[in-house]
Amino acid sequence: MKIQTQRVFVALGGFLIMGCAKEASQATPSPVAPDVVVLKAQKRDIFRTVGQPGFVEAYEQSSIFPKITGFIKTWNVDIGDKVKKDQLLATLFVPELLEELRLKKAKVAFDIVLVKQTEKLVEVAKANLKAAIAKVTQSKAVVGKYQAEVDRWQSEVKRLTELVAQRVVDRQILDESIRQLRSNEAGRDASLAAVIVSEADQLSFDASVSKAQIDVLAALAKVKVSDADESRLAALVGYITLTSPYEGIVVLRNANTGDFVQASTGDQTAALMSPDQSTSRGAPLFAIARTDVVRIFVDVPEMDANYVTTGTKAEVRVQAFNDLRIQAKVTRTSWALNRQSRTLRAEIDLANPDSKLLPGMYAYGYIKIERTGVNAIPSFCITKRGDQTVCYLLKDNKAIQTNLKLGISDGDWQEIVGIEKDSLWAPLSGDESFLQGDMDELSNGIEVKVITRTEK
């Protein structure tokens, strides 16, 4: 009995497998030739609408965080207030930063005085150099004077020596001339030494001039450094005032007088007033939304993505205004598909000068895809065989299964992008005879009976 039961299950399993395989490959052939109607592809305009629910979003929304650490001195706006570009939102109290800026300004002024001082030192060094040059000239003149005296007394001594030898002149006169010669030679040698000292002083003062000039350049560079440091600190002081980056509306305020705020983190107590903020993450002091333009996003399925570009017609339905329909156009697309959802992000911008469309409102976005003058056939002439999209063409009173490449569809008509002919894809020629009938009765190569039916 157990063996018979097993045979029954094996037989049933075999029938199930055979049935599944047959269904995946071909439709069940009809024992008689099925009735079909022959249709030709037509040039048609196909309109398809892609709609997605979404929300109205501000064109821009900026979170205002403090750049520096300090206390909130005053805040000037609250939620719902309209603000202009660069309008003051709040002021911080950072006294040590202001004092440091005052110190930097004083240092710049001091460095400028040092520049003037070094410039005066250059003038002093140049005057000293000029005096040294004059002293060198003077020393050389003295050397010349003594050399002339030496030459004179040398001549005199030579003459007197000859006269003394002839006993014409007394020896004492010659000795006196020799003493005059020795005195002038000593004066000449001393003057030569003075020239050397003067020339050394000239080189020293010349180096002093160069050093003083370099000191001026160093002082000027120091002024630039101090000035840059002052500008850096002045920029930080500028962050004491928080301003609006553009014209918009305040949608969030976490600023309170006396609050201690830290750079890049905001008010740590904001979580008490803003449940959406975690305690481990600082909240912005303000959030500003630009609402003169709002955005609605529509995620377009991959099969329709190629037909959506900038300028494609669109429509937005806003539930809060009794399903008001606003005609628009696609402003921009993400160009790339989302890898998870396989959709293309399309953005619709709407002018909102009176700010009636509020961020967060529920909206439904529609994108209208229009294909004009395309080759199309009725959707009921198309079916699936396995993973292939196929139709049936009439050839010698037989149905020939043919693979198709599809475009968009409006539900009734389907755009045909290409048809497989001899294992190659080709556009429709217009001579193809498409079969309309019961697709479950049609299979590749089956004979069919063509009937005439008046199209309604």
What does this structure look like?
The protein has 456 residues and is an alpha+beta fold. The protein folds into four domains: 85 residues, conserved putative lor/sdh protein from methanococcus maripaludis s2 fold, CATH 2.40.420; 96 residues, Efflux pump adaptor protein, beta barrel domain (Elongation Factor Tu (Ef-tu), domain 3, Beta Barrel), CATH 2.40.30; 73 residues, OB fold (Dihydrolipoamide Acetyltransferase, E2P); 142 residues, Orthogonal Bundle (Helix Hairpins). It contains four helices and 21 strands. Strands 2, 3, 5, 8, 10, 11, 12, 13, 14, 15, 16, 17, 18 and 19 form a 14-stranded antiparallel sheet that branches. A four-stranded antiparallel sheet has the order 7-6-4-9, with no helix packed on it. Strand 17 and strand 18 form a beta hairpin. Helix 2 runs antiparallel to helix 3. The longest helix is centred in the first third of the chain and has 71 residues. The two termini are 63 Å apart. The relative contact order is 0.19. The N terminus is likely disordered.
